[in-house]
Amino acid sequence: MKLPKISFSIIATLTLAAAVIDALNGCSSSQPDDSQIAAAQAATAITRTTNHSTTIYLVTTGSATGSGPRSAASPPPSDSLQALVDDAYAKFKDDQSGTNADYIPYLASVPSELFGIAVVTVDGKIFTAGDTGYTFSLQSCSKVFTLAEIIEESGEEEVLKKIGVEPTGMAFNSITALGLHDNQAINPLVNAGAIASVSMVKAGSADERWNKILAFESSFAGEPLKLIDEVYRSESDTNFRNQGIAFILYNGQHLFCNPLEACDAYTKQCSIGVTARQLAIMGATLANGGVNPITQQRCLTARHVPRVLAVMMMAGFYDESGQWAYTAGIPAKTGVGGGIVAVVPGRMAIVAFSPRLNAAGNSIRATEAINHIVRQLDLNLFGSVQ
């Protein structure tokens, strides 16, 4: 059952926030100073009511005076967030709808009952439920981080010029979309754009290209990630369509290394193994303005993060991206391996994993679980939908 919420007016919210800040600072003044008002303006009061009690807590939504990622100095209490993750897991764990991807033989063999949820906040707290230790393949979730890598290396304008950021409105592996756009990929989150992205990684050899991609994505996870050899072999034996896409791009001068090298690097990045917990840390690094909340390593320049999140919002859910923006309203990227990473800037990443997909290639249980958490915490970036 959906947990009801009590809505506060903005005046009540600011008054409550200022009162909490006064209490924390040991201040008894009834007139908060400018710094307290600024902090209050950065807060949203969220009230969750159950049958027995009401819990009020503050979730920061942004700095009143600064720019860049929104602060998460006052995240939801740990017990409340863990309870919500547990609730989402219990609510959707028995949904048996959908089927595993089968165009990659290995994916068809992944146990369909697997289901895990992980949330990582920008202050490094981790909340999990279910099969969050199972290693699955990143698949298209990897495209986000290669996009970040080439923006970091070559700059935003170069990526815009050589690839583009427009949604295709077609399937993620569409060849027709290439033909409609002068054989240019136009978006880095479809297969053609991702193959073009790996070709933009600056490298003197195929090995250097792959090692740079793996190291970059590992920095987001905060630990070394590894190739799942079985997935790589399974995809390599069947990736003829992607090879064709690579040659079309190369023939149109929209690919920037040998087409077979680019296709192989792309196949490898999709075959990187990750757990839901690791993927949530990767997403939380984007939520934290490019700084890994666990290792504190800067992985991406802060000014580039909004560009990556914008592309995720517009094209991260394949050809259901508009529906996702309409219902959830936060950037996310899905993969046919069953993983979904969603990012709430300045607050957290929400990840869910389950192999059963819908017709668009998106995990059904993962979509349901993330949407549930987003709604309960009222995280839609476009405004409250309560």
Descriptive key words:
disordered N terminus; 10 strands; 5-stranded antiparallel beta sheet; 386 residues; 3-stranded antiparallel beta sheet; alpha+beta; single chain; Beta-lactamase; 12% strand; 44% helix; 2 domains; 16 helices
Question: Would you kindly provide a written description of the structure presented here, covering whatever features stand out?
Answer:
The protein has 386 residues and is of the alpha+beta class. It folds into two domains: 10-67, no CATH class; 83-377, DD-peptidase/beta-lactamase superfamily (Beta-lactamase, 3-Layer(aba) Sandwich), CATH 3.40.710. It has helices spanning 10-25, 34-41, 78-92, 105-108, 142-154, 156-162, 176-179, 191-200, 206-221, 229-236, 240-251, 259-270, 276-287, 305-315, 321-327, 364-377; strands at 43-49, 54-60, 116-121, 126-130, 136-137, 226-227, 272-274, 332-334, 339-344, 348-353. It has a five-stranded antiparallel sheet with strand order 4-3-10-9-8, sandwiched between helices. A three-stranded antiparallel sheet has the order 5-7-6. A two-stranded antiparallel sheet has the order 1-2. A hairpin with a 4-residue loop joins strand 8 (332-334) and strand 9. Helix 8 packs across helix 12 (259-270). The model is unreliable at 1-73 (pLDDT under 50).
